[in-house]
């Protein structure tokens, strides 16, 4: 006989995953800690899998728990959408948008502001992470729409823009004169490998002067004229500028900004955020989107 998952327990599991603890989740859900703990126990027993790693001061998800959260978000979205459609004229729900941290600016704030004005009852969750992680989250159902930065146009993706990678240093900085070239990168940055390959092909020595998990740390190091990094043209952080052509650094490849949508029939909110992203990047819009934009 098919097992039926408890939607209330799934909502609690998602809240635990987002807040990192049973007590915090219980406070948000207006439940007692024991009630939430009992929900998790029953959920684990119904599936015969362990969902939570319970330690002295923290609670983390097991791999099975992480997988279930992806399904849970989709199930609750459908539940909430059905209830909303049958009980109110205003569309509401949840939309998760994933964007690599280095292309959040300049377009995403404006897109989110316009979307919030048009869908005031939709809860928007912005995920800023690496392209590979965002692709995994999309596959697991954790994101509705994602943007990626990739060297290739990919089947199943819609390319919104193609931008060149450019060398970035401090405003009025001089670090570009030094050899070996001092680089600053995050460990999982997709730009890192092609940049190092370009330098090696040009016979220019380089040194990884700064490696940090925080993009703000990388940006601060570059703005302080301590190292250089590479970004897409038009996405420069404050205090940074493109390195002059006289630096003698090799040309770099362009990157595609690709947009992906989760499989399945899209909600009106998903379709609208995609239209706003296209408009932000200057992609021509169709007649249906022109009507929506005029409303």
Spell out the blueprint of helices and strands.
Blueprint: H1 7-19, H2 22-29, H3 33-47, E1 52-54, E2 59-61, H4 63-87, E3 93-100, H5 108-118, E4 122-129, H6 131-139, E5 145-150, E6 158-170, E7 181-185, H7 192-201, E8 206-211, H8 215-223, E9 229-232, E10 240-242, E11 254-261, H9 268-280, H10 287-294
Parallel strand pairs: 3-4, 3-5, 7-8
Antiparallel strand pairs: 1-2, 5-11, 6-9, 6-10, 6-11
Q: What brief labels describe this structure?
A:
Arc Repressor Mutant, subunit A, D-Maltodextrin-Binding Protein, domain 2, 7-stranded mixed sheet, 10 helices, globular, disordered C terminus
What is the structure about, briefly put?
The protein is α/β, with parallel strands linked by helices and 295 residues long. 41% of the residues lie in helices and 23% in strands.
What does this structure look like?
Strand 7, helix 7 and strand 8 form a beta-alpha-beta unit. The chain has 295 residues and is an alpha/beta fold. It folds into two domains: 1-89, Orthogonal Bundle (Arc Repressor Mutant, subunit A); 94-295, D-Maltodextrin-Binding Protein, domain 2, CATH 3.40.190.290. The relative contact order is 0.12. It has ten helices and eleven strands. Strands 3, 4, 5, 6, 9, 10 and 11 form a seven-stranded mixed sheet that branches. Residues 285-295 have low confidence and may be disordered. Helices cover 41% and strands 23% of the residues. Helix 2 packs across helix 3 (33-47) and helix 5 (108-118) runs antiparallel to helix 9. The longest helix has 25 residues, at 63-87. The termini are far apart.
């Amino acid at each position: 006989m098919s097992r039926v998952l408890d939607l209330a327990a799934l909502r609690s599991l998602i809240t635990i995953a987002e807040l990192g603890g049973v007590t915090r989740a219980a406070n948000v859900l207006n439940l007692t800690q024991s009630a939430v703990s009992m929900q998790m126990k029953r959920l684990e027993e119904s599936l015969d899998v362990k969902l939570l790693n319970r330690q002295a001061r923290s609670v983390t998800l097991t791999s099975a728990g992480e997988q279930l959260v992806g399904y849970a978000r989709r199930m609750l979205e459908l539940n909430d959408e059905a209830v909303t459609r049958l009980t109110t004229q205003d569309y509401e729900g949840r939309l998760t948008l994933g964007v690599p941290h280095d292309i959040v600016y300049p377009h995403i704030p404006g897109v989110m502001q316009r979307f919030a004005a048009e869908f005031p009852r939709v809860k928007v969750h912005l995920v800023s992470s690496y392209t590979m992680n965002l692709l995994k989250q999309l596959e697991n159902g954790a994101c509705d729409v994602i943007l990626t930065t990739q060297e290739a146009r990919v089947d199943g993706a819609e390319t919104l823009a193609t931008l060149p990678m450019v060398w970035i240093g401090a405003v009025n900085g001089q670090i570009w004169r030094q050899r070996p070239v001092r680089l600053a990168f995050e460990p999982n940055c997709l730009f890192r490998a092609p940049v190092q390959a370009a330098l090696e092909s040009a016979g220019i020595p380089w040194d990884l002067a700064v490696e940090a998990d925080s993009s703000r740390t990388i940006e601060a190091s570059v703005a302080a004229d301590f190292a250089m990094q590479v970004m897409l043209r038009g996405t420069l952080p404050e205090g940074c500028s493109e390195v002059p052509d006289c630096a003698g650094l090799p040309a770099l490849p362009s990157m595609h900004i690709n947009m992906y949508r989760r499989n399945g029939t899209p909600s009106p909110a998903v379709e609208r955020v995609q239209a706003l992203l296209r408009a932000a990047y200057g992609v021509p819009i169709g007649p249906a989107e022109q009507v929506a934009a005029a409303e």
